[in-house]
Specification:
266 residues; alpha/beta; 5-stranded parallel sheet; two-stranded antiparallel ribbon; 12 helices; binds adenosine-5'-diphosphate; CbbQ/NirQ/NorQ/GpvN; AAA family ATPase
Length: 266
């Protein structure tokens, strides 16, 4: 198995399109434009990239960004072992060499000084300088950079600079509309349509509390989790509390409001 094969998405991931994002992504890929996926957590951004990597037949290398991540974590570093030092490519360098789609998930978590390493890869240069190694990596023709970020978490400290933003094409994601979300839940889990509709109804009630006690709505991921618990025999109302309410808030009033919404439905 070649290196690139190790990163191939083998089975078609289930992805429910919300609009014409699949065709638009294909156009962005054909033009090798970097892509930014914006939207709340758990609304299908990562699943979309996986699906597109599968559809385009390209390897996918995913990096979950965090504030402790350094440029070396992305680019690579010299490692010391019994036989001396050797260079180890980081995930970004590996993706550039292999011609993979490199997906930097939750990019705003990374520090600004870390992020500048992506700049030369996202303009006409399509190169990655490995300063420590004294090498300039020319990105493979198939390489593409994709980042995700959640504008909801945005603060002045944690926002992308314009100089970074203005290198990307962007897709705006949101929770799927009710009928599509019901279909996603049925496809992802074994629950029947009737239960799925009720779960989505509760999720939508929760989303209306965003900005009124909730920082973020109840995501599709949490609805899938509730459905999975129901599939394991947990009573629906308990599953909703456990998967869709308790994880997202500690506010007693909001918990009370959501618990009432659940009791009204189940
Ligand atoms: P994020 O936006 O945080 O990257 P994910 O892509 O991981 O979210 O989505 C979370 C879960 O929600 C997925 O694992 C999948 O079960 C479900 N999901 C959300 N949107 C879709 C969609 N459009 N098609 C298929 N599954 C979806």
């Amino acid at each position: 198995m070649s290196n690139a094969d190790a990163y191939r998405v083998r089975r078609e991931p289930f992805y429910q399109a919300q609009d014409n994002e699949v065709a638009h992504y294909e156009a962005a890929y054909a033009a090798r434009l970097p892509v930014m996926l914006k939207g709340p957590t758990g609304c299908g951004k990562s699943r979309f990239v996986e699906y597109m990597a599968w559809k385009l037949g390209k390897p996918l290398i995913t990096v979950a960004c965090n504030e402790d991540m350094t440029a070396a974590d992305l680019v690579g570093r010299f490692l010391l072992d019994a036989s001396g030092t050797h260079w180890q490519d980081g995930p970004l360098t590996l993706a550039a060499r292999l011609g993979a789609i490199c997906y930097l998930d939750e990019i705003v978590e990374a520090r600004q000084d870390t992020l500048v390493v992506i700049h030369p890869l996202t303009d006409h240069r399509r190169t990655l300088p490995l300063d420590k190694k004294g090498e300039q990596v020319e990105a493979h023709a198939d390489f593409q950079l994709v980042i995700s970020y959640n504008p909801g978490y945005q603060s002045l400290m944690k926002d992308l600079k314009q100089s970074t933003k203005q290198r990307f094409t962007a897709f705006q994601f949101d929770y799927p509309e009710a009928a599509l979300e019901v279909g996603i839940i049925c496809q992802e889990t074994a629950v029947d349509r009737n239960i799925s509709e009720k779960l989505v109804e509760i999720a939508q009630a929760g989303r209306r509390l965003k900005g009124h006690g909730l920082d973020e709505g109840i995501s599709t991921r949490l609805v899938v989790n509730a459905a999975a618990l129901i599939g394991q025999g947990v009573a629906p109302a308990d599953a909703c509390r456990m998967a869709m309410v308790r994880p997202i808030t500690d506010d007693a009033d909001v918990i009370d409001t959501l618990d009432h919404a659940i009791s009204a439905v189940f």
